[in-house]
Amino acid sequence: MQELYIDSVHHRFGDREVLSSVFLNCKVGEIVGVLGRNGSGKSTLLKIIFGELRPRFMHLKVDGTVVNKGYLTREVAYLPQAYFIPYYLKIDQLIALFSNRYREQLLEINVVRSNLTEKLGNLSGGSRRFVEALLIIYSDAKYVLLDEPFSQMAPMMVDDLKAHIRKFSVEKGFVITDHYYREILDISSRIVLIHNGCNYAINHNDDLIVHGYLPD
Amino acid sequence: MIKKLRFIYIHHFKLMACLNLSLSIYLTYLFTFKGFNHIDLYEIVIAFKLIGHGLTLLIEKLFFSGRSFYYRNLGLSYTRIFTVFYGLDGIVFCLLFYLNYLCRSFI
């Protein structure tokens, strides 16, 4: 079964319980949007799946195999909120490092092709973020976790990034979280809301109002 | 995987590799100077090597912790990166030591 599956996630920061019995699954071919207020535990959940944070308890399976850390399977890639690639590395070096299967397709993208020998730190903030997101999307991983991928990007770039995500939505599974909820609603095949440490399936936009994510 | 590790060591561990190599050369020099029949010297080597490796890990964790997502997205854990690094450092030290021993034996 081609599925990323996590359940019974319990995590607390100090005395504050951030996640309690949270469940999430993402099949290949799905784009799961995760929404929630600031501090609701969206990024924490993604970090737990990736293996960056160790929760009090969780049960994680990648393609039916129980694992402790997603990244060790090399089937899970994660785009964090902040820049994560050292600024002094060149884009052509990074492509060789991150992407094997989709390298040719990645090299055809305009921002990549025109800055191939540039250092990442020489790009503008938005372009740097865009290139980092592309490296994760075009990596060999089957499941892609994107933590606020649209932040720092101009509207045109956001549309571009959404097109790249849609392009891979057939052969990969995506879990995306962002505060630009309209973009998430637009691109996702399924929405999950994290609220009060628990997850709720969102079937209609009005559910977001009912659960207090959007104002009346 | 080897390609990724090699890239990481070349681009991010140059300083650490130089520090550990300098320590190895200095420790080998001690053997040249004092001879190979001092047990204390072997204990010093183990202690200094452990300190060197501990410092390497500390520097990475304190000053370059932001790279952790980068390493992990390449499928590499700190455990693997440092185990291979320490292993290579150990091999280099053993080679230097053996070379030194051979040179002294022939001279």
Could you list some keywords that capture this structure?
heterodimer, A: 216 residues, alpha/beta, Rossmann fold, six-stranded mixed β-sheet, four-stranded antiparallel β-sheet, 29% strand, globular, B: 107 residues, mainly alpha, elongated
What's the short story on this structure?
The complex is a heterodimer of chains A (216) and B (107). Chain A is α/β, with parallel strands linked by helices. Chain A is built from eight helices and ten strands.
**Architecture (CATH level 2) name of one domain in chain A:** 3-Layer(aba) Sandwich
Q: Termini separation of chain A (Å)?
A: 40 Å
Largest sheet of chain B: none
- Taken in chain order, the helices and strands of chain A follow as EEEHEEEHHHHEHEHEEH
Q: Give the strand tally of chain B.
A: 0
Output the CATH homologous superfamily of one domain in chain A.
P-loop containing nucleotide triphosphate hydrolases
How much helicity do the residues of chain B have?
over 70%
Please render the helix and strand layout as text.
The complex is a heterodimer of chains A (216) and B (107).
Chain A: E1 3-13, E2 16-27, E3 31-36, H1 42-50, E4 57-62, E5 65-67, E6 76-79, H2 91-98, H3 103-107, H4 110-113, H5 125-137, E7 143-147, H6 155-168, E8 173-177, H7 181-187, E9 190-195, E10 198-202, H8 205-210
Parallel strand pairs in A: 3-8, 3-9, 6-7, 7-8
Antiparallel strand pairs in A: 1-2, 1-4, 4-5, 9-10
Helix pairs in contact in A: 5-6
Chain B: H1 2-12, H2 14-34, H3 39-63, H4 68-73, H5 78-106
Helix pairs in contact in B: 2-3, 2-5
